[in-house]
Design brief:
Layout: H1 2-33, H2 37-60, H3 65-122, H4 130-156, H5 158-187, H6 192-230, H7 236-246, H8 252-267, H9 269-294, H10 303-342
Helix pairs in contact: 2-3, 2-5, 2-6, 3-4, 3-8, 6-7, 6-9, 6-10, 7-8, 8-9
């Protein structure tokens, strides 16, 4: 009986795992079939979480929720309008300049590698960089063509994109106003303790994670832009915005910093090293001074699980998967930990004393 009791949990998991995989595959197929509606719903939900924080702050000051919602929405729309009028034209101009300058930067980088190889040969050092330069140039050119194709596709689908944005904004408004009743109705289908547990875990992880990541991204993007302007880096606003947006994803800021530094190094080695050093200093300050105060231990995940969740999210849902992978993984962990702690401990049978 003891052997059967030890095998039964493994047998249960062995029978349940194929069903879980099958249900996950069917869910993924359903999500892909319903695109872009699922993406719109997720983005609108995240935006409603972010807007809910200032709304609750205004409510704590004694302002009615309806007036708080109206005020926050007006401020948000005004900010988007101002950004669209002031920043978007500058970013489009700098993006066009990047496309124009990139071939010259690639040629300059190739020349620098060839010069380094000539110096190595003059000093009798076996260093072959010709293949590396060709592979690097080919890779960057291929990525540039892919990016250009995507931008052209976006320009062609401008009408559909505008409709999606409008639907997202309207859905965000309704989620801010009536989201509480919606989530209460959806989670009421789960068993009483499990539904409440899942709802609280999802709300806490998504709310805290995106609020913290958005704050960190704004701070890091602003600092990087100011530093790039002081260093007289070309396309400073564009590069600062890229780093800020990449910081919405864990480790994205570090990856974008290295990539932009390498890109600037193609034009000027010393400027690229200055950019890398400055960006690393600011990134570490933001990581160790600002992030712990804002994020703390929001999701409670091991860095290894964070990387794996990011890879899985990117594989399943692309960019949107990268954005929501960490809070989803954190919610799953919290629910699993709570269920495990709530499980009653196994009791060993009490043996009666043997009377001799």
């Amino acid at each position: 009986m003891r052997v059967v009791a030890q095998i039964s949990p493994w047998l249960t998991w062995g029978l349940a795992l194929p069903l879980v995989v099958l249900n996950g595959w069917l869910l993924l197929k359903t999500v892909n079939y319903l695109q872009p509606l699922v993406n719109i719903l997720v983005i609108a939900t995240v935006l409603s979480f972010l807007l809910d924080y200032p709304i609750k702050l205004l409510q704590s000051w004694g302002i009615r929720r309806s007036w708080a919602v109206l005020g926050v929405l007006l401020v948000a729309l005004s900010g988007l309008t101002v950004a669209g009028i002031t920043l978007v034209p500058v970013l489009l101009k700098q993006g066009n300049e990047l496309v124009v300058r990139l071939p010259n930067w690639l040629a300059s980088g190739t020349a620098q590698l060839e010069g380094l190889e000539a110096w190595a040969q003059a000093h009798r050092v076996n260093l072959d960089l010709s293949g590396l330069a060709e592979q690097f140039t080919t890779g960057v050119s291929r990525q540039l063509k892919t990016l250009t194709t995507q931008v052209l596709g976006l320009a062609v689908d401008t009408v559909g994109w505008a409709v999606d944005v409008l639907v997202t904004l309207v859905l965000t408004l309704y989620l801010v106003l009536f989201g509480e009743r919606l989530w209460s109705g959806l989670f009421s289908w789960f068993p009483a303790p499990l539904g409440l547990l899942i709802r609280e875990s999802l709300h806490r992880n998504f709310y805290n994670y995106f609020l913290g990541q958005a704050t960190i991204a704004v701070i890091l993007g602003t600092l990087m832009t100011l530093a790039f302007v002081l260093l007289q880096v070309p396309l400073a606003l564009l590069f600062g915005l890229i780093i800020g947006l990449a910081s919405l994803v864990p480790f994205g800021g570090a990856v974008s910093i290295v990539g932009i530094s390498l890109l600037i190094t193609l034009q000027n080695v010393w400027l690229g090293l200055k950019v890398l050093a400055t960006a690393l200093v600011l990134g570490q300050m933001n990581e160790h001074l600002v992030a712990p105060r804002i994020l703390g231990n929001v999701v409670g995940l091991n860095p290894v699980w964070i990387v794996l969740s990011l890879l899985l999210g990117a594989k399943l849902a692309g960019l949107l998967g990268l954005l929501i992978a960490v809070p989803v993984a954190g919610s799953i962990k919290n629910v699993a930990d709570s269920l495990r702690q709530a499980r009653p401990p196994e009791t060993q049978p009490v043996r009666e004393p043997v009377v001799v």
